[in-house]
Specification:
Number of helices: 4
Order of helices and strands: HHHH
Number of strands: 0
Shape: elongated
Structural class: mainly alpha
Radius of gyration: 25 Å
Strand content: under 5%
Largest sheet: none
Distance between the termini: 58 Å
């Protein structure tokens, strides 16, 4: 008796376009014939992703601070302020619920 996963797409389904219209195949796309032009339309999500990449590439990252915190954790010197963690957790939960803390 052979047991198979029913949630996995079949081989044919993996190469067919999905509901969004993009093919899931990794094959090289065909080039348009001479005289034809191809156009690409990006979704709002791709535009937002591009904006986030730009935003985070410009953010400051303090590698020295990361190294210091990592060393403090490894040496057992890192102290956690449970009250501050709890306050921020409550504020985040309230924000997600649509209320101010």
């Amino acid at each position: 008796m052979k047991i198979t996963r029913t949630s996995e797409p079949t081989r044919a389904e993996r190469t067919q376009p999905n509901a969004g219209g993009a093919a899931r195949s990794t094959a090289t796309p065909a080039k348009p014939a001479a005289g034809n032009s191809a156009s690409v339309q990006l979704s709002d999500l791709s535009t937002r992703l591009s904006q986030l990449e730009t935003q985070f590439s410009q953010s400051s990252f303090d590698a020295g601070k990361v190294t210091e915190v990592r060393s403090a954790i490894a040496e057992g010197r890192y102290q956690i302020d449970a009250g501050a963690v709890a306050d921020k957790l409550i504020a985040t939960a309230a924000q997600l619920a649509g209320r101010k803390a």
